[in-house]
Design a protein that fits this description.
Blueprint: H1 2-15, H2 31-48, H3 56-70, E1 80-84, E2 91-93, E3 98-102, H4 103-108, H5 112-127, H6 130-138, H7 141-146, H8 158-172, H9 178-195, H10 200-212, H11 220-223, H12 228-240, H13 252-262, H14 265-279, H15 283-296, H16 301-313, H17 317-330, H18 335-347, H19 351-364, H20 369-381, H21 385-398, H22 406-421
Helix pairs in contact: 3-5, 5-9, 5-10, 8-21, 9-12, 10-12, 14-15, 15-16, 16-17, 16-18, 17-18, 18-19, 19-20, 20-21, 21-22
């Protein structure tokens, strides 16, 4: 009997294709699903941190350092590297390859080896599959294995899309254990040396965070615990290494790129001030601050997006359109800008452009009901009631139920059901 149980367990593992990439451990989530998770949640993550920083030269530089590092890693994955607009001091990775660093964190770094340390640390989490291990413990395995292709979100049921949203919440709040942080620290040090960089960069970043912990704790610390022992252990580990040859501490390129980002800092400071008064619904004051931001830096997609929302609220649709067009021009993958753009064009009765933007927003984040609701509205206006009904149904499945649009969606769906079968309906 015991032999049968053991055989059955081994068979399950084989069927799930669960061998780890380095052969040292088993995982229940196959590598293709891990990569799929990264693809699905990269745009929600970018959106949460206010979109991509719009300077291509800066993005290219971050990617070049990232790709150089990843070429020396054992796991060959579709790595991607991004710098995002947020002033928060943070960096994080997603399963299967994506790595993000905030503009705020980049600006506090002093040299290129520190940047290498940050990116290499996040690559450590990916290479040790830390995200996947945590998800396997906390998320239903069946749900993770059911994930469909990110390129075909329209084929997923409302229930599956809803569950994708639940995984998103869990994934973006993952808190690594102390052991996992130690693994990532050591990985970062060794990877820096392999790539020809000084391994001191990682230690310098941790020491910098430690100094900031009491007065201005970095967002990074909320998911990457930093006990005093971690710095001590890394110092001891570094003392055991005897790398040979010249190791890069800094480059002129790093400082050239940092200077470019520093030029836009004042613009984003106006954005941060504007966001504070915006939350208090002091829209006139917020408008002035966001206008100062775009005057200083015309590519400030965050300021343009907030301005478009304010002008939409004031029913000044042409001004709203002007600013949202700018936001999408400089960051075509910015979910919030695409969604807001769809609403503005819908209000302007430009249904074709609105539909394209809602389809784009649905592609970027497939598990938010609002895109489906507005697509339903467009098809209802075009008298394609069957399609409208289907989109309303999916929007209702996804929610959230406390959204302003939800009750209207429910009413419209019930009305179309009534028109279809002439049955009485209730609100």
């Amino acid at each position: 009997m015991k032999r049968k149980i053991v055989f059955f367990i081994i068979l399950i593992f084989l069927l799930l294709n669960c061998a780890g990439s380095n052969g040292t451990y088993f995982t229940l989530i196959p590598i293709e699903k891990e990569i799929e998770l990264g693809k699905i949640y990269i745009f929600p993550s970018i959106d949460q941190y206010e979109g991509l920083y719009p300077e291509k030269e800066v993005q290219k530089y971050i990617s070049s350092i990232g790709y150089k590092l990843s070429s020396y890693t054992s796991r060959k994955l579709p790595y991607k590297f991004y710098i995002v607009n947020s002033s928060q001091i943070n960096a994080f990775a997603l399963p299967g390859g994506p790595v993000l660093i905030t503009r705020g964190l980049f600006l506090i770094l002093d040299n290129e080896s520190q940047l290498v340390g940050v990116l290499a640390h996040e690559l450590g989490h990916i290479n040790y599959r830390h995200h996947v291990k945590i998800l396997e413990k906390n998320i239903a395995l069946g749900l993770l294995l059911q994930i469909g292709s990110v390129f075909l979100p329209q084929n997923l049921t409302g229930e599956l899309l809803f569950n994708l949203g639940k995984i998103s919440v869990a994934l973006l709040r993952l808190k690594f254990s102390r052991d996992q942080e130690r693994e990532a620290d050591k990985f970062a040090v060794l990877l820096a040396i392999k790539t020809g960089y000084s391994p001191q960069g990682m230690l310098e970043v941790l020491q910098k965070f430690k100094k900031m912990e009491k007065t201005h704790p970095p967002e990074w610390l909320s998911t990457h615990p930093l006990p005093e022992t971690r710095i001590k252990e890394l110092k001891i580990y570094l003392s055991t290494l005897k790398p040979s040859g010249y190791l890069i501490k800094d480059t002129q390129k790093f400082h050239k790129i940092k200077k470019l980002v520093l030029k836009t800092k004042k613009s984003y400071e106006y954005v941060d001030k504007g966001k504070k008064v915006f939350k208090k619904e002091k829209f006139d004051i917020a408008e002035k601050l966001f206008l100062k931001a775009v005057k200083l830096y015309p590519k400030n997609t965050v300021a343009h997006t907030y301005l478009s929302f304010i002008y939409l609220k004031k029913k000044n649709l042409q001004k709203a359109k002007k600013h949202i067009d700018m936001a999408i021009k400089y960051d075509p993958q910015f979910y919030t800008a695409n969604l807001l753009g769809g609403i503005i064009y819908f209000e302007l009765n430009n249904l074709s452009e609105a539909l394209a933007l809602f389809e784009k927003s649905k592609e970027l984040i497939p598990y938010k009901g609002v895109s489906y609701y507005y697509i339903g509205r467009i098809y209802e206006k075009r008298k394609n009631y069957d399609l409208a009904k289907n989109y309303y149904k999916k929007a209702l499945e996804l929610g959230p139920k406390d959204s302003k649009w939800y009750k209207d969606c429910q009413n419209r769906y019930n009305r179309l059901i009534y028109l279809n079968d002439n049955r009485p309906f209730t609100f």
